Write the structure tokens for this entry.
Amino acid sequence: MTLRLLPVLIFVLFGASGAAAATPVPSGNRHLEQPPVPGASASRTKAMKTSYEAKYRKVYKLLKNDRELRGKIAGAAAAYGIDPIHIVGAIIGEHTYNVDAYDRLQTYYVKAISYLTSGISFSYDGEDISDFIRRPQFALCRESDGSYAVWTCRETVWNDQFRGRTVGGAAFPNKRFSQAFFQPFYAGQTFGLGQLNPLTALQMSDLVHKVSGLPKLGSDDPGQVYKTIMDPDLTLPYVAAALKMSIDAYGTIAGFDISGNPGLTATLYNVGNPEARAWALKAENERRQAEGAEPKLPEENYYGWLVNEKLPELRALF
């Protein structure tokens, strides 16, 4: 077992048992000004001849005008024991800095059906993901329990042994696991109301099956994965599960309760890998403690900063 896999397995085995003793993170932003927005987001917005404020207003209007959607969000949040503002923050951030929201919720349902017959595949350079994960480097992951542990293990193996390397004469790109295998149309692509990454959906599959009773997802059925991402009734539980996982990771690992700061949960929804980031923060604060310094609080990025900045308006939706 590689040492890099130990934190993941410890978190999965022990869950959120330490979250009750976690230190609450104050509400609001730690940064006085918004951190820089990545160039890719700026270029995409410019190419669409729009602005962040216009995109924000568009998705806010969708949420404000659709009482049924707000009800679905509230229901998903209740099922996973989180404040619905966390789901709203994730949706707002994605559609402000990623892609425009559709004007009507019905459009997402129509798009969802189209992916069932789209013939997409999860593969890289002609090798299907189902074959790729049978390579001996992934043998350890077969011992992992549950979809989150299994797919997080596989992502770690990819980063450690394949990313940017030549293995068995084959060169693999210096890209994230999700970019290489799970975005068949173009790099950086996510879909649906929550703009979920297919890898995130696969990781959350067991938790969503347990809590919401939805069928489990498999990498051998990409069409069903993308349908789930696009269908609001199916994707909202996955968004809630991912946010819940971030809150639990920071409580259990880093000792911080971030449930009262939707800008932080939005940040983690944006950047991913909450457990690895929680371990990194824990290590940094252990060093700071040894030096007699104050602990560092979790900080929002540009995406989470907007959510906290707009919080009074977002709260008014519920």
Residues 232-254 form the longest helix (23 residues).
